[in-house]
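[job 0412] stage=complex_fold ligand=cobalt (II) ion status=START
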Amino acid sequence: MQFISIPTTAYSDQEPGTSGLRKKVNVFKDNKGYLENFVQAIFDTLPEREGATLIVGGDGRFYNAQAIQTIIKIAIANEFGKILIGQNGILSTPAASHLIRKHKAIGGIILSASHNPGGPDGDFGIKFNGANGGPAPENVTRKIYTYSKNIFRYLMADNKNIELREIGSEKIAKTEIKVIDAVKDYADLMESLFDFEKIRNLLSGNDFKIVFDAMHAVTGPYAKEILEDRLGAKKGSVWNGKPLTDFGGGHPDPNLVHAHELVEKIMQDNGPDFGAASDGDGDRNMILGRQCYVSPNDSLAILAANAELIPGYSDGLNGVARSMPTSQAVDRVAEHLNIPCYETPTGWKFFGNLLDAEKITLCGEESFGTGSDHVREKDGLWAVLFWLNLIAVKQQSVADILDSHWQEFGRNYYTRHDYEGLNSQAASKLVADLRKRLPEFKGKNIQGMTIINADDFSYTDPIDDSVSQQQGIRLFFENGSRIVFRLSGTGTQGATLRVYIEKYEDNPDKLQQDTQLALQRLIHIAEEITEPGERFQRTAPDVIT
Ligand code: VG1
Ligand code: CO
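[job 0412] stage=complex_fold status=DONE, emitting structure tokens
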């Protein structure tokens, strides 16, 4: 076995975004040393890597298998003590987070571009999670990026490719390489949190039908093992359960637009009682009931309000957190429970410190992400099981749970409008212009509504005092109504503008309106401010959720 130090030329664009480094597959595949540089940059920021344990896995998208072999070779040459790899190179993001924690690893490398499309023309991504199991915080990703701009060599072992199809282990130089069952540990963890017996009673009877759409992404094997094998849901309840390198040509993003087959099914008169979907790497979730859609914002609030009914959370919650653009529905629950509610920038990495310090137990984002202190990532199947456990305890339909929540707490009408593939310069200019106009916005009346405050969200981490600025332009109206503007940090082509719109309603007779209608005036105000026609030649958003 030989270790070789290979001279390389640095790239200047390896800056991780909201969730890791994401680029078109070709950028990784066709640029010499592109993947290698980034992996070595990660390792060089880990001085204690010799002898340490590393977790490696990905969502199975195109280039996953090839990239993993490269990463293993670099890891061997960097003298890790142990590398644990999911069978076939596959691990869902929450399962990887769990393994890092369980095996006290120094960290893990997760290969995924999450909800972005895959295949030879799609996206690829790589993310580093630290010893707590969570996405590396900004100070770490900044270090990796800085290092990557000056890297001049990477280390590589010249071993043969590792057989990833079979579970087993081998030792190469100083490193033990283990291919492990990707599903079992995670399924056991779920079983330790939820009342599987109650859920089994619900699912194995004839009265309650569920459908879970794995979207040909990573959750298929997890969902089959947990929902069908352990919990007795009928075979075939898991749709699109075979992970494919191109996700069957679809967009593995569980929302009303991309999971439309599931949505059509659930909206039928005799549709399933419960429907759910997850994304490319298994950390997102969409929850549906018969003829009913649960906004992720409401889902977070409902989970928080009912957590004590779930075995894993029966002692109550230390606190909750949401990303800034996420609706304030959970804030009302926190107030009612008399627990703290934190507001963080977009991206799961900002929840890590709060979870580690036991300030919060549950957290979530409007982007179909919910999770808890059981791992340090959002967790799609966890949210599904939480809902099923709730339904099994409450013996209520999804729609009834939602309605009674609104009756008690009021409803935060909420929508997100995305304009995708915009000219990057024009998008940055819009944000710069809005920032400049902040003083002018304060007190301004637009279409009959007064902006009572306006700012650019800045966050100081309460644990380590690190500051993250310019995290989104916020316009506040009366009674908690808000419009938030920010640019996406996960795309690979042009810019995506996200416009988040929210309005609170507590009149019991006005809780069942159509969301877009209820928010119409605010939507028009947002359009007047962003001028999508003039600035981007767009007449409507590309995706509305
Ligand atoms: C989006 C979401 C954000 C989420 C991130 C990663 O980021 O808005 O809430 O944490 O994706 O999700 P952005 O910067 O594009 O708005 V995933 O499922 O890619 O790990
Ligand atoms: Co994801």
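The CA atoms of residues 180 and 277 lie 25 Å apart.
[job 0412] exit 0
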